[in-house]
Automatic annotation (TrEMBL):
Listed SMART domains: HATPase_c (SM00387), PAS (SM00091), REC (SM00448)
Protein name (Swiss-Prot/TrEMBL): Signal transduction histidine kinase
Domain Response regulatory per the UniProt entry, residue ranges: 7-123
NCBIfam families in the record: sensory_box
């Protein structure tokens, strides 16, 4: 790039680590992520394509090996530097990587700041190594044939500045002890760990930094070629103690010196304690199982659930608790897989110490450790869950039956209502209208016999009253059974209703019919009655000037939308008042047909009524009003 930013390629087959490294590099203002790789082949290809200053590479990846990849990158991109990254720090692997030209070697788990620092140092052609590897590899590196330097070149009467700089960036405490057992150098990490300044630590002995009970053990670290890490306790300047891991080595030069590496285990112990607390406080039984299916750890809830003491469980096969289950097969497949394992859950059968069995929900999660891949099993007794699920399913079945019965009852009520409307309309047509018509005829005969003008005017008014009664009765018959509806024309029936409202109130209407299929007779009657109820509300309460009615085909059903420009209302206030049953009736009628209803309104904003019903007969629907045996009366 044109600026001074360092181009970096990240190569790691673990997606979580790869993404974390990428985010870490993106967060640093001096670094630029230019490429990602998931195996050795891609790592070499990315280095050739992007020509970065630094490649940070996982040692153990598929499709190749790390030393070959380092050689290929150094041969094809001479300016690139490779920083090795690994979950393990075997001495042979570290030495091989350094021999082929790696500029650093870090173990996974190294703090993010130190990884960033190692990348920057590599770009400057400076070397970096995790402190825990340094003690293990220092002596073999000194003796290797490919290394021509000797410690005398690094340490004379004083340590060389570059070596001190390397120790200064070590992620652990480093002390260099002179031949008289006095501390000659302490890196910043050690000074911070023990709470001393640089001058204060000089000439102290290592035994001054540990409690008295560890003084003998601390002195044994000095003068040996190499000592394995030993758990002891450090003592700070203020007298407080902390758990620590000490390891030492021997640096041979003109004046032999010892080096001591110290790791503060406080955070590690705290993390282990939190992990144990998490396991113990879990409301579910938790087991840690190895790839052979052997139980390595168990919590209190496991003892309570299965009835075993945890000491009795450790080392036993997990089949003792989850018999005849395909569990250990899954664990072995994880161990052999090159891909990062992903947790999952299974419904299995658990067996208690008294041989009683119970249904169990088992969550299976991988846990990578230095000892290899382990598995965390979280086990929950789901007996009550299954019982509740059964009760819920039965309740839902009962609810469905009840709902079907309710819909059937409402459907029969609608049918009975339409039938009663038809009977009343027929009675009005066949009886009342006929009687009034006969009375009108006789009245006209009587009028012709009268000679007195006053008496004739009275008869004329009486005749007009009878004609008005006939007109209103005919309108009542239409309201009860619209002739258009009788002939299967929903739009025609609504148009007749709108015309009546326009005649009575002067309301302007627009009817839009986009239905492509005719509903069954009963569904048509229900749609009409629902729309009629909404339009009656418009006529009585809305004080509207216009109303727009739409019949739309939607999702194998009929959507009716009625929009007026009236005064509107607050639904929460109006719908709860006594006497305002129209809105409830609209909603009930839509539900009868298996549909839905939506009403929107606000003061001064008009009202929109929408309802949808499927174009099919509702459950257990009887014959529609048009199919009733009442006949087809005409006014």
């Amino acid at each position: 790039m044109g600026d001074n930013r360092i181009d970096v390629v990240v190569a790691d087959d673990d997606p979580a680590v790869r993404e974390a490294l990428a985010d870490l590099i993106d967060s640093h203002p001096d670094l630029e992520l230019v490429g990602l790789a998931i195996n050795h082949e891609q790592a070499v290809r990315a280095a050739v394509d992007h020509r970065p200053q630094v490649v940070i590479m996982d040692v153990h990846m598929p499709r190749g090996d790390a030393p070959s990849s380092v050689r290929a990158i150094r041969d094809q991109v001479p300016d690139a530097r490779v920083v090795a990254l690994s979950a393990h720090g075997e001495r042979e692997t570290v030495l091989n990587m350094l021999a082929v030209g790696a500029s650093g070697y870090l173990v996974k788990g190294t703090p993010a700041e130190e990884i960033l620092e190692a990348i920057i140092r590599a770009a400057r052609d400076q070397f970096s190594m995790s402190a825990e590897l340094l003690a293990d590899c220092a002596e073999p590196l000194r003796r290797a044939e490919r290394a021509s330097w000797r410690f005398e070149d690094l340490v004379g009467n004083r340590l060389e500045d570059s070596y001190l700089e390397l120790l200064g960036h070590a992620p652990c405490g480093v002390l260099i002890v002179g031949p008289r057992g006095r501390i000659e150098y302490a890196n910043p990490h050690a000074r911070h760990m023990f709470g001393y300044g640089s001058a204060e630590l000089r000439d102290k002995r290592l035994r001054d930094l540990v409690p008295e009970r560890y003084r003998t053990a601390s002195e044994q670290l000095i003068g040996r070629v190499f000592t394995a890490p030993s758990a002891m306790t450090g003592r700070r300047r203020d007298g407080t103690e902390f758990p620590a891991q000490f390891s030492g080595g021997h640096l041979q030069g003109r004046q032999p010196r010892g080096v001591v590496f110290i790791a503060d285990l406080s955070q590690l112990r705290a993390a282990e304690s939190r992990f144990r607390q998490l396991i113990e406080s879990s409301p579910d039984a938790m087991l840690i199982v190895d790839t052979g299916g052997r139980i390595q750890a168990a919590n209190n809830r496991t003892e309570a659930l299965f009835g075993y003491d945890r000491d009795h469980l450790i080392g036993r096969a997990v089949e003792a608790l989850l018999p005849d289950q395909p569990l250990t097969v899954s664990l072995r497949e994880w161990d052999d897989s090159l891909e990062e394992p992903v947790g999952h859950s299974m419904e299995l059968v658990g067996r208690r110490s008294d041989t009683k069995q119970f249904p169990a929900d088992v969550s299976i999660s991988p846990l990578r450790t230095e000892e290899g891949l382990l598995t965390v099993l979280t086990i929950r007794d789901i007996t009550e869950v299954q019982r509740a699920q059964f009760v819920l399913e039965r309740s839902l079945e009962l609810l469905e039956v009840t709902d079907r019965d309710r819909q059937a009852l409402l459907s029969h009520l609608v049918h009975a209502q339409e039938a009663e409307r038809g009977r009343i309309a027929a009675d009005i047509h066949d009886d009342t209208i006929q009687v009034i018509t006969a009375a009108s005829l006789r009245l006209q005969q009587l009028r012709r016999r009268l000679r007195d003008p006053d008496e004739q005017r009275v008869m004329d008014k009486l005749d007009e009253t009878l004609k008005l009664s006939l007109s209103r009765l005919r309108q009542l018959i239409f309201d009860l059974r619209p002739s258009s509806l009788e002939h299967g024309c929903l739009a025609g029936a609504l148009r007749g209703l709108l015309e009546q409202i326009r005649t009575e109130t002067g309301l302007t209407y627009r009817l839009e019919d986009r239905l492509t299929a005719n509903p069954p007779a009963e569904t048509m009657a229900l749609i009409y009655r629902t729309a009629q109820e909404a339009l009656v509300n418009v006529r009585k309460h809305a004080h509207a000037k216009t109303v727009h009615v739409q019949l739309l085909g939607l999702d194998d059903g009929c959507l009716v939308r009625i929009v007026d420009d009236g005064e509107g209302y607050n639904p929460l206030e109006v719908e709860s008042r006594p006497g305002h049953l129209g809105i409830s009736l609209i909603q009930e009628r839509a539900q009868i047909a298996g549909g839905w209803c939506r009403i929107e309104s606000a003061p001064g904003a008009g009202t929109t009524v929408e309802f949808w019903v499927p174009l099919g007969a509702p459950p257990d629907a009887p014959l529609g009003a048009a199919d009733s045996p009442e006949g087809d009366p005409q006014p």
